[in-house]
Specification:
Elements lengths: L3 E7 L2 E6 L2 E5 L7 E4 L4 E4 L15 E3 L11 H8 L4 E4 H7 L4 E3 L4 E5 L5 E8 L8 H4 L3 E6 L5 E4 L7 H9 L2 E5 L17 H10 L4 E2 L14 H10 L14 E4 L2
Parallel strand pairs: 3-6, 6-7, 7-8, 12-13, 13-14
Antiparallel strand pairs: 1-2, 1-15, 2-3, 4-5, 9-10, 10-11, 11-12
Helix pairs in contact: 5-6
Length: 255
Amino acid sequence: MANLTITLIGGPTALIAYGGFRVVIDPTFDPPGDYKLPYTTLTKTVGPALSADALGPVDAVLVSHDQHWDNLDHSGRNYFLKAKHAFTTKAGAARLGGSVAGLAPWESTTIRNAAGQTLTITATPARHGPAWIEPLSGDVIGFVLSVENLRSVYATGDTTWFDGTAEVAKRFDVGAVLPFAGAAQTRGPFNLTMNTNDVIETAKQFRDAAIIPVHSDSWAHLTQTRADIAAAFTAMGIETRLKMLLPGVATAISL
């Protein structure tokens, strides 16, 4: 029986239906276009597979970081600020204001749904590039979702593989991992998100968890594709671990 369903909206944005809760991560609902930053221009190449209105009611919206347009665009920001429960970094919550709550790495909070079920949301460490990148990239977190009697779901946020992500595997029984992949590059010849090697390492450390990549499409600064990830898993003989999502299609996964 599937107790997890994930719908890829595009880029990092996905709807996670898990344990009686519906959660959206890193909402981006703008059409294709350019976003100018002081050091580069980000280009969105493909619009969302589903509109925000098409998703219906959700219990929470999670944003790994607010400072980059490919994780929180104009429409996504409006959607996030109207959410019943909205969580992001401490710094992001201070910038966004309203009812947005900030979480530090390893800090947890809980929400309840109409059926009285409890979802625990734990912020996890993320490093948005190589060592010492934080002064340039700013704070980022991932999220672990946990419901009693189910294995957890882990969305890495924008990060490369490092000891902080490895620690998640030690602390939680994770049944599904959503690595933010695509090997994003904007500041030079180094990756700001996971490349195929990082995603393979993720599969190794989260032993029998389903690996469900997101953030590997829809943006011009992503240097690796969904096909690159699939080829890497096939080359390593672990393609059965990989669950590739089709945009707009709800995919059921058993934990």
